[in-house]
Amino acid sequence: MKIKMPRGTSDIIFEKAAKKQYIERLAIDLFEQFGYRPIVTPTFEHTELFQRGIGESTDIVRKEMYTFEDKGGRSLTLRPEGTAPVVRAYLEHGLASKSLPAKLYYCGQMFRYERPQAGRYREFWQLGIEVLGSQDALVDVEVILLLIRFLEKIGLKDLELHLNSMGCLVCRKSFGEALRKYLKDKMELLCIDCKKRVNSNPLRVFDCKNKKCQTIMKKAPLISDFWCESCRGHFETVKSILDDVGISYILNPALVRGFDYYTKTTFEVRTPYLGAQNALGGGGRYDGLVEELGGSPTPAIGWAIGTERVIMATEELNINLPLSSNTDVFVATIDGAREEGFKVLNFLRETGVSADMDYGNRSLKGQMKLANKLRASYVIILGPDELKKGICLIRNMNTGDQSEMQTSKISRWAKGEFKSGKVDFNG
Ligand code: AMP
């Protein structure tokens, strides 16, 4: 029996791999332009990090973590999200003593034991940013702006930015009490999970997928009624700067997102083109998380997007991403000119041209077919006769024109031909 990939995972190959790479490069260029620097954290962490960071009563920690014991008896977990690991690294390496805020970005796989469906996987890729050490409302706007600009740059349209404020820990406390009071006489109607949530963390009832619970939550009190002066003020400032920079948003007081660490500004970008899994990315402030994980009080904010969902949205909208997988020059050889051809190939590559040749002993006809498949712009043909004369044949694959050229002039020709294209010549 053949071994297949585990449920909810995927092999990213062919065009999808090129799309993923394009999206990641575009994101990284933009992150760098906005002054963010890369961070890479381990794929697994001590389980406690997520229990404390994300919250014991969240669905992610209760049901979705890939937790295992290693051979040394430690409980480890494949990361389900990127923020808690970044905060752990921030504390572990004393980033607070460097210039603040720390502006970081990451790209990596996340793991959640969810029921797989279109746009929802057990291993998926995220791109994300985190800003630690500033409570400035301008930072809230910067991260939101970066998210929207990134998705727009990819060509996505009709994006919906949902915006809310989760308030600070003080507002959240009174909100939690009000929710508990509201839910108390509706216990009978709630699902088993939500019955437990009412006491442990009533806010999480908003996440429940059960229809009855959702109907009950439609009339539940909203966090906006419990904002303190400072949280209300912060939110007003964020909204007015968003208005100034021309970012439109939908106020959504029911947006609570699936992690316990969010405070104040929270947001999610949705697309009308992806059905049930319509969230492309989201995030918010987490002003209490650094302290929760053992640091001193540090305001922070971040977001993550799901790369697969972004790819799906581009496909739904028929967006042609400019994937540059074309080969500039294909080197074809006949009868004993392979090694000489290999030299020409390497020489071309050193000048910055993307070049390839056949390693499958194909006939000249087979090599031309391969060149076509690789969408080569030119084919350089070398045979024993050409070698003797110190020349090669160059075929323009678009026009079909073929001419002779001295081998010593290949470099100058290549530089002239591909100078204005994507190749960066330094020779
Ligand atoms: P979150 O980390 O839950 O805030 O999610 C941020 C983004 O990651 C979502 O908006 C999705 O685009 C993506 N995402 C979350 N969970 C999954 C999943 N199971 N499969 C694919 N993408 C996901």
Describe the structure.
This protein has helices at residues 14-33, 47-54, 59-64, 83-92, 137-154, 169-184, 192-200, 211-218, 229-244, 289-292, 307-316, 338-350, 364-373, 384-389, 410-418, and strands at 37-38, 44-46, 66-69, 75-78, 102-111, 123-132, 160-165, 250-251, 263-270, 279-285, 300-306, 329-333, 355-357, 378-382, 391-396, 402-406. It is an alpha+beta fold. The chain has three domains: 14-167 and 241-316, Bira Bifunctional Protein, Domain 2 (BirA Bifunctional Protein, domain 2), CATH 3.30.930; 169-227, no CATH class; 329-421, Anticodon-binding domain (Rossmann fold, 3-Layer(aba) Sandwich). The strands form three sheets. An eight-stranded mixed sheet has the order 1-5-6-11-10-9-7-8, with helices on both faces. The structure holds adenosine monophosphate (AMP). Adenosine monophosphate binds next to strand 6, strand 10, strand 11 and helix 11.
List keywords for this structure.
38% helix, 8-stranded mixed beta sheet, 427 residues, 5-stranded mixed beta sheet, binds adenosine monophosphate, 3 domains, alpha+beta, BirA Bifunctional Protein, domain 2, Rossmann fold, 15 helices, disordered C terminus
Blueprint of the fold:
Layout: H1 14-33, E1 37-38, E2 44-46, H2 47-54, H3 59-64, E3 66-69, E4 75-78, H4 83-92, E5 102-111, E6 123-132, H5 137-154, E7 160-165, H6 169-184, H7 192-200, H8 211-218, H9 229-244, E8 250-251, E9 263-270, E10 279-285, H10 289-292, E11 300-306, H11 307-316, E12 329-333, H12 338-350, E13 355-357, H13 364-373, E14 378-382, H14 384-389, E15 391-396, E16 402-406, H15 410-418
Helix pairs in contact: 1-5, 1-11, 5-9
Bound molecules: adenosine monophosphate.
